[in-house]
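Tokens for chain A. Residues wanted.
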């Protein structure tokens, strides 16, 4: 899948080139670089932190070193080393959670693993329907209930069913109504506790789905979720549809949590493991041109 991250950065690169021009360069003046990084939606404070350490004329290699430091966070790889391996997917509505769950299910299927889905976003009927459609397309079992029923119960039943059927991976969708933090907190905490009751090692991973088109403004959202349940990793969706790719630097810098995957399109295949080197290389290509 190499090359997909770079390709999905096209809009971000275009935005950068609007500032620096399209011709190939050996070095970039610091103030122009500053402007370009802000244009790519790297948070202003972080841009200042990067720029402060650089000379007046900045080479590609020198900048690369500075950008690499930002991604100095825990490893973003995980192994399915338990059965069932339970992954809780959290994030606000519309972030791309349902699609991401389908993409993850497909990825695990490709690796020869069996998958079950849990529709624990019981708040919206549409969420249950949408996930059910994906379950049908992917031909995987799904545990669901009627709208308004207890999401923790769905979580329990999904894990219990995975255990009973010897399924490798359980992917559980959750609701994400951020406007009411107390409710969200109670609901997510309950889901996590009940998951543990169903299987003591669960949830193995809690992954936050962020809408990449929101750029740096998604950081506060991520912080709230991290405070509420503690996030293991981030999945950024719609990277292909945004000129705000630079926000990934801000997100990682602020949260110190690794990005596991990025969504690079709407199809089930369009999920790639995040490769920080390819990402940085993509941004540098925008700045210094290929
Ligand atoms: N271009 C692009 N579109 C995406 C990507 N991921 C999701 N989408 C689209 O974004 C829209 C919202 O995605 P959903 O998965 O329905 O959103 P959601 O977060 O599940 O919504 P809730 O169920 O409310 O949480 C859909 O039209 C998806 O096709 C991506 O990586 N790239």
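Reply:
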């Amino acid at each position: 899948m190499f090359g997909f991250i770079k390709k999905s950065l096209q809009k971000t690169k275009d935005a950068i080139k609007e500032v620096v021009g399209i011709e190939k360069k050996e070095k970039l003046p610091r103030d122009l670089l500053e402007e370009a990084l802000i244009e790519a939606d790297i948070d202003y404070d972080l841009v200042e932190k990067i720029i402060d350490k650089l000379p007046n004329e900045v080479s590609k290699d020198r900048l690369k070193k500075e950008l690499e430091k930002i991604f100095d966070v825990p490893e973003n790889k995980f192994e399915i080393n338990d059965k069932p391996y339970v992954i809780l997917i959290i994030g606000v509505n519309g972030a791309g959670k349902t699609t991401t769950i389908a993409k993850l299910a497909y990825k695990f299927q490709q690796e020869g693993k069996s998958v079950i889905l849990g529709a624990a976003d019981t708040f919206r009927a549409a969420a249950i329907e949408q996930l059910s459609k994906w379950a049908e397309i992917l031909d995987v079992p799904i545990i669901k209930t009627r709208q308004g029923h207890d999401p923790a119960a769905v979580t329990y039943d999904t894990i219990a069913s995975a255990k009973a059927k010897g399924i490798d991976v359980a992917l559980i969708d959750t609701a994400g109504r951020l406007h009411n933090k107390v409710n969200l907190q109670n609901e997510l905490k309950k889901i996590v506790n009940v998951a543990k009751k169903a299987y003591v090692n669960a949830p193995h991973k809690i992954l936050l789905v962020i809408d990449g088109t929101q750029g740096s403004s998604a950081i506060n959202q991520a912080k709230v979720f991290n405070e509420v349940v503690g996030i293991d990793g981030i999945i950024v969706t719609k990277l292909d549809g945004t000129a705000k790719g630079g926000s990934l630097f801000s997100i990682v810098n602020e949260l110190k949590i690794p990005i596991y995957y990025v969504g690079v399109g709407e199809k089930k295949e369009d999920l790639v493991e995040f490769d920080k080197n390819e990402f940085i290389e993509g941004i540098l290509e925008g700045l210094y041109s290929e």
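The first helix runs from residue 4 to 8. The two ends are 20 Å apart (CA to CA).
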